[in-house]
Amino acid sequence: YFHDAVPLNLYRAPDDLVRVHQEFKDIQKRYGVDQPVWLLELNAMPTDDATIPCASMHASNPIQTTQVQQAAYAIQAFALAAAAGYERIGFYQMVDDNPCIQSAVWGVTRDNGSQRPVAQSLQTAIHLFSGFTDARFAPLIRPQARWVAWPTDPTSFTPNWQVYNVVFDLPGSRRLTVLWNGDGTAVRVRI
After folding, report:
1. pLDDT at residue 89, as a whole number
2. If you average pLDDT over every residue of the chain, what do you get?
3. What angle do CA 150, 80, 17 make, to 5 degrees?
């Protein structure tokens, strides 16, 4: 009962942001607690940056992530985190801080000051999402489940969302829709 917030660090899987937030809110509800959930660290660390020292060390990471995927992840993660209800969201970290001694390539910028594509994604997300009055997640579920999926099956870690749709209500009666495809094939969606 003696906490002001629940701090979380979640990496690489934007789907987890929705599921894990709900898990922590459900746990708190069982015990009559309602404290905010904060997302202190999120990132999808790239493994393809050949311009940094010790690039080969990170290229062998079993979870392969391109810099372009990291940039897409930032938009997806910030949108889903806002819709899920995190009260604080932080990206870890701003600068690599010597990738030769780090377990991953963390930075928005490299140690030499050059930016990765994720820098522009974060600027876009912060600029467009800031000040929202409401954010809602309205995914399009696949018509046929390909696997046992969350939230229907609480033991599953994978949802059955085909299209991700986060809608932000902004001051001045403006609306922003963030939409992305969860599959590798083209799909047509009506908004």
Report:
1. 95
2. 94
3. 50
Measured CA to CA, the distance from residue 157 to residue 19 in angstroms comes to 8
Which residues are registered as beta bridge partners of 180?
Answer: 164
Query: Alpha-carbon distance 75 to 180, whole Å?
Result: 10
pLDDT in tens, 16-49: 999 999 999 999 999 999 999 999 999 999 999 9
The total number of residues shown for the chain amounts to 191
51: its two tokens: 């311009």
Residues 33, 46: Cα–Cα separation, whole Å:
37
For residue range 109-136, what is the model confidence (pLDDT) as tens digits?
999 999 999 999 999 999 999 999 999 9
As a whole number of angstroms, the distance between CA 2 and CA 118 comes to 36
Give one DSSP letter per residue of the chain, joined into a string: ---S-EEEEEES-HHHHHHHHHHHHHHHHHTT----EEEEEEE---S--TTSTTHHHHHT-SS---HHHHHHHHHHHHHHHHHHT-SEE--S-SB---TTTSSS---SB-TTSPBPHHHHHHHHHHHHHTT-SEEEE-PEEPSS-SS--BTTSTT-S-B-EEEEEEEEEETTTEEEEEEEESSSS------
Going from the C-alpha of 9 to that of each of 18, 86, 122, the distances in angstroms are: 13, 12, 18
CA distance 118 to 122: 6
